[in-house]
Amino acid sequence: IGDRYELGAATRVLGEVYAAQGNVKRAAACFRAAVNGLKNIHECYELMRTLCAQGKFLAKNGKPDDAEIAFLEARQLAKKLDLDYYQALIAVALVDTLAPQERFSEATTWLAEATGLRDSLEGIDRDRVEVAIKHSSNDLQQAITRSSVREAETLKTICRVYEDARFPIAEMKPDLAYQIAQSVGGVSLFVIGRKGGGFSVPLTYNIAVNEAKELVRRLDTPTKKPFLGLETDAQVLTSHKSKTVVAVPCYVAPPTNGKDKPRELYAFCTCFDQATPVTPRQMEILYASSEVLARLIEDEDERHAPPTPEELARVRHPRGSFKEILTIDPGMIKVIKNAEKAAGSVAPILLEGETGVGKELFARAIHGASRRKDGPFVAVNAGGMSVSLLESELFGHVKGAFTDAGSDRQGFIDTARGGTLFLDEIGEMGEELQVKLLRLLENGEYRRLGESTMRKADVRVISATNVDLAKEVERGKFRRDLYYRIAPLRLTVPPLRMRTSDIQLMVRHFLRDCAQMNGIADRYIEIDVKAMEALELYDWPGNVRELFNEILRVVSLIGRGDLVRFGMLSEHIQEYLQNKKRGTDGLLERSVEQFERRLILHALDRNDWNHLRTAESIGVPRTTLIAKLKRLNIAAKL
């Protein structure tokens, strides 16, 4: 009969039916048709109800931004019609939409609005809104709690990285400062301490060093309690030019070769946009962050402290160390912790992992942390020799044992006496040699080729393999008894594609090392966003070894440039990115944003947050840099 009002209402109901059935496409089409039809006839009430239904549907189906727009349109119509009941329900719906996005401040504001509107209602309308508010308030509080737990866990992870991962954390300073500021809503932060007659500022985010010093000078006046006073653990909360500045003490231990010196006090200062109370949750995060930052400063002090005689001796006689293993990946950190524990035992260790993941690096680190660290570390590639040659090299031989044996020769087992014997690719060892190795592991005895006398070995055996030895045992290609002898302790090193968070850290470390190898250590080599994105997304079948070789190749061909670009990478890496891009545009957009943010943060940190110098260093106009800062949510004075 051409009643477009009823047609719009019926189409809305049909959309709700399809949504309940899980038919997303038809539901979306019905809601669009109903909204468009009702807008064409300028109908307000039914359009408001339809926009509410559409918003709930969009929120449930992973489109919170579109849902928010629908709810805001519906709210305007409810205000125009002066319907407090619907305004309250829409405010509750906005709370339910914003809370999962962790937009808690906005969600709390909408909840307060719904509560205020509820007080103006009566009867059944008030009761319905009351129930909705209770459910929404409970969900919001749970979301805030979950978010707080995640933030706390993130900070604990950062602390564990400092404590356990033993990697050059200074390279992560800009990202770390950004993450802390974002977690508490700060617009800038810095760490400052007294040095001689002035100040030392080891870390900043969105504030120049001189600005930080000047701010502290203004706050640290004789008429006030000392801003950097040593007598208190309490945070300092003060207001300056409509900004809130929160300072938390960072107690830093002296370098290990300066044990008699007292601990130094730094202040970890966070600046907020307006003079507003800081919540207990924010203070907890700031206190936890201060412990992390104190460790960072300790690391800096250790690096700049003069070496002790013991350290000089270690330089002359280098040993493996877990500090050489670069990682921020939680799984890799767990492997490192287990390896450190295993280093103190006497049991043989089996290292499993793909080619190039760094199994020998782990073996050297285990040796360096063991009681045999003063003895030799001898590495043998069991898969790179014939059975007869490997037997001769491993056990040694006497003169005349075979045709070319012109004299007695010590084997690797003798060479490694008092230390560690590392057998790489043990899965490729022949069966005859497996029997002799089994005897060595069972009773510590072996015999040189051509000799009848049994010798006593004094080595700890660490083995490595890139195949699944358990499966090889089932297939009869590896002795079961030997497998149990070499693998009382098993450690699996994850491949690089399983710990992509480490790639950027490794790339920057390898760029510096390769620059030194090529005699250009005086230049800082940066990598552009697209090139880093390609390295992050490539699956690295050769793992860390392949990544290092790729960086070495690029640095060797970079000429006098100081920027690694996408076109300089190997063709197969470029092709991999292009193929990946065809099916994962959303993922690539997020990856690009992540790398772009890190690149800009590092550039800002190097240039003391000077926009003009930063823009020049990354090769973009200043206006482009400012636009990127806004888009990437990097706080800055614009």
Note down, in words, how this protein is organized.
The chain is an alpha/beta fold. Helix content is 55%, strand content 12%. Strands 2-1-5-4-3 form a 5-stranded antiparallel sheet. A 5-stranded parallel sheet has the order 7-10-13-6-14. Strands 8-9 form a two-stranded antiparallel ribbon. The relative contact order is 0.06.
Q: How much β-strand is present in the residues? A: 5-15%
Whole-number mean pLDDT: 81
Shape: elongated
The termini sit apart by 59 Å
Low-pLDDT sequence parts: 310-318
Number of helices: 25
Strand segment count: 16
| Biggest β-sheet strands, sense, barrel | 5 strands, antiparallel
Widest sheet: strand order? 2-1-5-4-3
The computed structural class is alpha/beta
Radius of gyration from CA coordinates:
32 Å
How much helicity do the residues have?
Answer: 55-70%
Compact summary:
The protein is an alpha/beta fold and 638 residues long. The chain contains 25 helices and 16 strands.
Task: Supply the key terms.
638 residues, alpha/beta, five-stranded antiparallel β-sheet, five-stranded parallel β-sheet, 16 strands, elongated
Secondary-structure map:
Layout: H1 4-21, H2 24-40, H3 45-60, H4 64-80, H5 84-98, H6 104-118, H7 123-165, H8 173-184, E1 188-195, E2 198-205, H9 209-219, E3 236-240, E4 243-252, E5 264-272, H10 280-304, H11 309-316, H12 330-343, E6 349-352, H13 359-368, E7 377-381, H14 387-395, E8 396-397, E9 409-410, H15 412-415, E10 420-424, H16 431-443, E11 445-446, E12 455-456, E13 460-465, H17 469-474, H18 480-486, E14 489-492, H19 503-517, E15 526-527, H20 529-537, H21 543-556, E16 563-564, H22 571-583, H23 585-606, H24 611-618, H25 622-631
Parallel strand pairs: 6-13, 6-14, 7-10, 10-13, 15-16
Antiparallel strand pairs: 1-2, 1-5, 3-4, 4-5, 8-9, 11-12
Helix pairs in contact: 1-2, 1-3, 2-3, 3-4, 4-5, 5-6, 5-7, 6-7, 7-10, 7-12, 8-10, 8-23, 12-13, 16-18, 19-21, 20-22, 20-23, 23-24, 24-25
